[in-house]
Amino acid sequence: MVIAENVNSFPGIKTGKDYLFHSKNLLKQSPMDYTFDKEIFERTIGESKFHVMEAKLNLMETIITQEYMSTISKGFSLAIVISYTTEDEKSELILIIDKMKVKSIKKIVKTHTVLG
């Protein structure tokens, strides 16, 4: 899943880590029993640095892992979410993401107004 969001009205969100902090709080409020075992870490996709939060969910005896990746630039968030149940699935999804041509968000926002 890819999400683009204008976060200008949320003054506390300056980095992907800030965005994920609030995302984590929303997930904790959901009826689903998410767990967060790892600290937020960084991953580079294309030319952009993303912060990554890993969440786990036990759904009908199956552990589903989700990675929420977010970067912020010029008041906009770009987030990517992947879900997997095995390391092979994770590896395949990471390979796909690594092939993405994510230019610097600053360049995208400067030349396009579609993200609003």
Structural class: alpha+beta
Low-confidence stretches: 108-116
Q: Give the helix tally.
A: 3
CATH architecture: 3-Layer(aba) Sandwich
The CATH topology corresponds to: Protein Transport Mog1p, Chain A
Strand coverage percent = 35-45%
Rg over alpha carbons: 15 Å
End-to-end separation in angstroms reads 18 Å
Helical content band: 25-40%
Report on the structure:
The structure is a single chain. The chain is of the alpha+beta class and 116 residues long. It has one domain (2-109): Protein Transport Mog1p, Chain A (3-Layer(aba) Sandwich). The chain is 28% helix and 39% strand. The protein is built from three helices and six strands, in the order βαβββββαα. The chain has helices at residues 16-29, 87-98, 105-111; strands at 2-6, 34-35, 41-45, 48-59, 62-73, 76-84. Strands 1, 2, 3, 4, 5 and 6 form a six-stranded antiparallel β-sheet that branches. A hairpin with a 2-residue loop joins strand 4 (48-59) and strand 5. The two termini are 18 Å apart.
